[in-house]
Amino acid sequence: MQMMSSERPACGWLHKLLVLLVKLHFAFAEPLQPLNGTGCTAKGPASYILVFTGHWSPQAFPKQYPLFRPPAQWSKLIAASHNRHFRLWEEGSSASPGVQSFAEVGVTVELMKAAKEARKKRTVGVMYRTAGIPNGIGHSSTEMLMVPRNPLLSLMVKMIPSPDWFVGVNSLNLCDGNRWKQEVTVDLQPYDAGTDSGFTFSSPNFPTSPPENITKITSQMPNHPANSFYYPRLKELPPIASIKITRQRRTPDRQTSISNHILPNSINPQRFSATPLDCEVSLWSSWGLCLGPCSRGGVRHRTRYILLRPANAGSPCPELEEQDECVPHNCIKKRQ
C-alpha cells in the first residue's frame, strides 16, 4: 500500500509535465506574432528602389503655371521607414513644426530631429532623402532597405513655388503578411499643410492663424476662383506626381549604389490629357460719358479685361467692350 501511494504523486507529476510540454509545442508551432503591430512576419529585410516622378506640366496644370522667379520645381524628397507608432504627417491632423517648416520653406532640420527622437523609441528605422528636381517634370530616386520591424513608408516632397503645398504618402505598408510586396505605384495629389493662407503658387507669406489641419487640394477645394488648382470643369485633378517602388534582388557582385540620383531625362514621364482652362474676365467697368449729337442721341461704353487667358481648348473669352444708346448730358429732353 505504501508503494502504491508513493507512485501516485510521481504519476501526477509526470502527467502535469507532459501537458506542459504539449502546450509549449503548440505555442511554438503557431506563426510568430509581429511585435510592430503591422502584421509583418516576413523573414529578413527587403531592398527597394523608390522612384519619384513629377508630372507638373503647363499642359496638365495651365492655370498660373510658374515659369520664372522661381519656375515650377520639386524640393528634395524626405522619407522614413517606421511602424504604426510614428506619423510623419497625416491628412486631417495638424502639421508638426517639422512638417510646417518643410512645407513652407523646404527645411528638413525639425523633421530630422523628430525622426532622431523616434529612433530612440525604435518607432522609426531609417530616413531617406533624394535630390531636388529643377523642373516640374522629372525623376529622382533612392535605394531603401526595409525591415519587418518598420515596414511602413511615409514621404513628403514640397512644391516650389507654393505657400505650404506638398505631395506625399502616409504609412504605406510594403509588407503583405509574411512576404514583401514586389512593386507598388501610387499617384500623388497636392496637400495643403494648413499653416499658410496663400491661394496661388507665388502668394506672399500669410500665416494661417490659428493653423488648420492638413487637407487635400482638389479641383474645387479651396472653392475660390483665385486658387491655382481651381478647375471647376474637372471632377478630379490629374496626378501631379507619382512614386514607383520596386523590390530589388541583392547580389554579392553588386557594388555600386544608385541612391539619391536624378534619373536621365530620356525616361518619358507619364502622359496625361491636357487640362482645359476657361477664360476669366473682370467685372464690367462703370459706363463712360454719353457722347454724340443731340439730334440723333449719344452712345456710352463700358469695358472689362482678361484675368486669365484660355488654354487647352477651354472656353474662349467673351466680348470685352459693350455700348448702349443714351442721351448726352448737355442735351435737354423735349417735353411731351
TrEMBL record:
Name recorded for this polypeptide: Spondin domain-containing protein
GO CC annotation terms, alphabetical: extracellular matrix
Keyword Lyase: no
SUPFAM superfamilies documented for this protein: TSP-1 type 1 repeat
Main localization of the protein described in the UniProt heading: secreted
Signal sequence interval, chain numbering: 1-29
Any GO MF annotation of the entry: metal ion binding
PROSITE patterns noted in UniProt: SPONDIN, TSP1
This protein's record includes keyword Membrane: no
GO biological process, one term: cell adhesion
SMART domains, per the entry: TSP1
Residue span(s) of domain Spondin: 36-225
One Pfam family recorded for the sequence: Spond_N
Record key words, sorted: Cell adhesion, Disulfide bond, Extracellular matrix, Glycoprotein, Metal-binding, Secreted, Signal
Residues spanning the membrane: none
Location in the cell: Secreted, Extracellular space, Extracellular matrix
